[in-house]
Here is the input.
Amino acid sequence: MKSLSSHIKHITEVQNIDYYDTLTDEEKGNFDKSTFFIFEKLGLCMELIPILDKFKSVLKGEKGKRLYTALIEVIPKGIYTYKQIKKGKIKRYNPIMVDLMVKEYQCSTNTAKEYIEVLEGIGKYEEELERLMGKYGVAPNGKSKK
Here is the structure.
């Protein structure tokens, strides 16, 4: 299964026009569900912010191959540095949040952890945890609300 990091690498470094076509149906679904996280991760690169700001309104709502193709057309091929996500803050992944992310995005545990790191990096972890707990009826102790 291709991870968020793999998608980002292909968008910025590899830029193979056929990349999306090489994905399995499950991986294509994962790519499509990862759109928010792809933009947020790319937004952690100072060099890419002006490009993303310029094209975000045009790319909004795009998914799949069209999104991938558009991104590789506007992002210059290269190796980029991303603002350091505060990994020290995540000492241990909250198993409730990991489970909720897996459920919400129908992704692997490792992908869920990557998403959590992005949420931490952009300061939206708590907000997303509350949203998902409310959506799935999970109490703060991890048990279902009755």
About this structure: Residues 4-74 form one domain. The chain has a mean pLDDT of 87.
